[in-house]
Structures are given as C-alpha cells and as structure tokens.
Design brief:
The complex is a heterodimer. Chain A is an all-alpha fold. Chain A has one domain. Helix content of chain A is about 75%, strand content about 0%. Chain A contains seven helices and no strands. The longest helix of chain A has about 35 residues, at about 150-180. By secondary structure, chain B is an alpha+beta fold. Chain B has two domains: about 45-175 and about 260-270, Thrombin, subunit H, CATH 2.40.10; about 180-255, Thrombin, subunit H (Beta Barrel). Helix content of chain B is about 30%, strand content about 30%. A six-stranded antiparallel barrel of chain B has the order 3-4-7-6-5-14. In chain B, strands 8-9-10-13-12-11 form a six-stranded antiparallel β-barrel. A two-stranded antiparallel ribbon of chain B has the order 1-2. The longest helix of chain B has 24 residues, at about 65-85. Classes of the chains: A mainly alpha, B alpha+beta.
Chain lengths: ~180, ~290
C-alpha cells in the first residue's frame, strides 16, 4: 500500500516536471544557434527506469502505457510517447537481467538504482533505455528519414540531456530512497 | 485448446506487450488524420485545467510583454482606421480585399462575401518544438468556438482550431508539416506557406514562379482561398532561392507572429464559411 502511494506520488511529480518545466524550456530560452535543432529532454521514462524490481512485468507494461498516454494527452501526440514507453517497459527486464550482479528475483525490496547496481551499470541501463525511447519516439514523430542528420542530432542531444537529468535525480534522491526501502 | 491456454499463460506478458503497442499504433494512426480524438488532446478537462492553472501563475510576469503587443496593435489599427476614414479615393481599390461588414462604402455597393466575428482568447499552452505544434486556448464551445475557425495574433496568422471541448480548444499552429496555407505576395501572386520542422523562426513560401520579382523584406499575406480572413500578415521574406529543378522560387519568411511568446489570440468566425463550403463541395461533386 505504502509502495503504491509512493509510486503514484512519484508518477505525479515526474509528469508535472516534464509537462510544466521541461516542455517549456525550449519555447522561451532556446534560440536556435547555427541550425542546431530545437529539442526537448524527456525525463519521464525515468519513472519506468526506477520502478521497484519486484513489480511483475505486466504491471511495468501497464505503468509504461499509462505514463506514456498521460504525456501524450498533454503534448497532443496521441500514442507516440505511449508506444516508446511501452517498448522500454518491455526491454527493462532484459536490460536489468543483463546488468544486475545477481538474479533479478533475488532483489525483493530494491529499486533499480546506484545502491543496488552501482554507478556504471545504472548509468548504462539508463542510457540504453533512454536512447531507445528517444530514438523510437523521434522516428515516429518525424515519420520520415528525409533529414537523417537532423533526426540523429535531435535524438542524441535529447538523450544526453535526459541522461544528465537522470544523474541529477540520482544524486538528489539516492540517500532518501535507500532509507525508505531498506 | 489446452495447448492454446498454456501458450497464452506462458507468453501472457509478451501478448500484453503487443496488445499495448497495438493500441498505441491505432491511436497514432487515428490522429495522423487532421481530426483525431478529443479525449486524448490537451483540450480535455484535466490537462486544460492544469495548463490554465500554470498560465494563471505565469500570467503576471508577462503583463509587460502583453501591454507592449497591445500598444503596437492599437497603433496599427489606428493607422488602418485613419486610412479607411480619410483617404477614401486611394483606398477604394483595396476595399474589395478587406473584410468590411458595412455594405456601402462611398455610396457604392460592396458585395459582402464574408462576415467575421472576432473573439479574444488567452493561450494557456504552446509548443514550438514538435513536428506539428499545438496551442491550447482557454475558450471552448461555451464561448462559441467551433472547429476550423481561424486564429490570429495581434501581429499575424497563428493557426486553425481543430479540437473543441466545453471550456478549451486546441489550435494547430502554422508551425506544422501537415497542412500548408494559401498565401499571397503583396502584388497578388498566390503561393503556399509551409513549415520545415525544427525552427519556429522560419516559414517557407513555395511555388512562386521564377519571373515574379520578390524583394527581401516583402510582406506575405493570407489569401482569400484559405480559411483565414484575407490580408492577414503571415511574415516577411528574409531569403530567396531558385529551385533549378522546376524553376520555382522558394522563399524563407520570418513569421509575423512570435510563436515563442503568444499570450493573446483572436479566434475568427467566418459566418459565410459554411455556405461557401457547401457551394464548393457541391461544385466538386458535379465535376
């Protein structure tokens, strides 16, 4: 029960940050220097990345769908964010199995994070999934490979920014999280 | 049968995954058409209300900018008004192009082909980064906003209403790759204005024949073919290219509207639009 309240609270916080802050940065402050495309960092996949390990796969998938759809509603992109997010929710299990030191089922109370995985594996895990999410989303949104350079530039710039934000999040919340869950 | 059930149980997660992705694809393909489903747009009650709250907080900080833009618009309208009232002789040719609602100007009958109602609305959400950019405004069906109405800012064209809920509406801004709008140069040559993704400060005017001379700084207006009222400023020419392939000119425009800080817009209702649409549709069918 406590876990569920925590999840819903984190869900609201991440969605609000994404919708009210990150989506708005580009509008007023980012002025197109030398043809560099405008991009938005998408932090919200972080919610899927740090879902507790013991949550079954089908729930992760449903959370992914709900998160993506919520962002879609706010950004008028019906389905595109949901598609990318469900995809990384599916790949999350595989990535975790590869990167966790022990078998995934042995972690009962942990969240994927620096505490349970160590810095390098956690960053690799986040980077891979964020990159897949961004690549899929931007490909669906653009729906053409007429400008592959611009597309790639957008994907990379956006993924790197998102990864930096994930690192900020980890630095800010690692301590409190471990005290909650341990 | 037993095998089927076993199969479903073993691969339940995979099936769920494909089911969800399928739903997403259906949603995407349904909204790639210009209509789309209003539940999943920012015009719905929850997201609209959230954006409204955000706008209420930030509103105070943009008052100075709003004030400036209103002053500018006021000055422009005063100029137009002076032109319309004092120098009727030089203006009389242009009158036909302007959507005047009065039927007699200078004791001469003007055919009234469009009647416009302007409603002001506040922008509560805005984007410039996506492939197709949408603006949410805080007026909806209750204030008389309908689908397909044109939306203008104080300085130029903005877009078209595509979704309406009771209290909110979403507008497809001209920063989109779906739909081009008909435009004309100041000498009356018609082209179409589109957008290339990535830069909200550049619009493209295509299909201008080679022999037409265009100067840097020329203004581009909406034509009477579009759903906009004719003569609304879209932008000014900043660069021009000649495409060798088809000998047509491609012009880069600087949009008249600053999409980065839209605060107020006008939603324009054209009461003749329905009649015009029915007539045009029936003509199409005859052909």
């Amino acid at each position: 029960m406590l876990l569920r309240v925590q999840l819903i609270f984190r869900f609201c916080a991440i969605v609000l940050i994404q919708v009210l802050v990150l989506n708005k940065i580009s509008i007023q402050w980012w002025t197109h220097p030398s043809g560099f495309p405008i991009f938005v960092p998408y932090l919200y996949p972080l919610f899927i990345l740090v879902l507790p390990l013991r949550i079954p796969v089908w729930q992760v998938l449903l959370w992914g769908f709900v998160t993506g759809l919520t962002i879609d509603v706010f950004m008028n992109t019906a389905g595109m964010h949901a598609f990318a997010t469900v995809l990384i929710a599916w790949l999350r299990t595989t990535a975790l199995n590869m990167l966790l030191p022990k078998n995934r089922t042995e972690y009962t109370t942990h969240l994927p994070g620096v505490k349970s995985m160590g810095w390098i594996p956690f960053l690799a895990y986040s980077a891979i999934l964020l990159f897949i999410h961004h690549a899929v989303f931007f490909c669906i949104e653009t729906w053409s490979f007429a400008n592959p350079g611009i597309l790639l530039l957008k994907i990379c710039a956006s993924s790197i920014t998102s990864l930096l934000l994930v690192m900020v999040y980890t630095l800010l919340f690692t301590q409190t999280q471990s005290s909650h869950t341990a | 049968m037993r095998n089927l059930i076993l199969f479903i149980r073993r691969h339940a997660n995979l099936l769920l995954f494909f089911l969800l992705e399928g739903i997403c694809l259906i949603l995407i393909s349904r909204t790639q058409t210009l209509q789309g489903n209003s539940l999943l747009s920012s015009a719905n009650a929850v997201s609209g209300a959230l954006y409204q709250k955000r706008e209420d907080v930030l509103y105070y900080f943009s008052l100075k900018k709003i004030n400036d833009s209103l002053l500018q618009e006021n000055a422009r309208l005063r100029q137009l008004f002076a032109l319309a009232t004092h120098s009727v002789d030089t203006f009389s040719d242009e009158v036909k192009d302007f959507p005047l609602t009065s039927t007699t100007v200078d004791s001469r009958q003007i055919i009234q082909y469009a009647k416009y109602t302007y409603r002001s609305a506040r922008v509560i959400n805005n984007s410039v980064t996506a492939e197709n950019n949408y603006i949410t405004i805080n007026r909806g069906a209750k204030s008389g906003i309908r689908k397909n109405m044109a939306v203008l800012s104080a300085s130029g064209a903005v877009g078209r209403v595509i979704q309406v809920s009771d209290n909110f509406a979403t507008v497809l801004s001209i920063l989109n790759v779906k739909q081009e709008i008909s435009a004309k140069l100041s000498d009356g040559n018609i082209g179409s204005v589109g957008w290339e993704e990535g830069n909200p400060d550049i619009l493209l005017l295509k299909n201008i024949p080679q022999q037409i001379e265009v100067k840097i700084g020329d203004s581009v207006y909406t034509s009477s073919y579009s759903f906009f009222p004719p003569g609304v400023l879209i932008g000014t020419v900043t660069k021009k290219f000649l495409i060798r392939k088809n000998n047509l000119q491609l012009l880069y425009l600087k949009p008249a509207t600053n999409f980065r800080n839209l605060n107020y817009v006008y939603v324009v209702e054209n009461s003749m639009l329905e009649e015009r649409r029915i007539l045009e549709d029936s003509t199409q069918r005859k052909k």
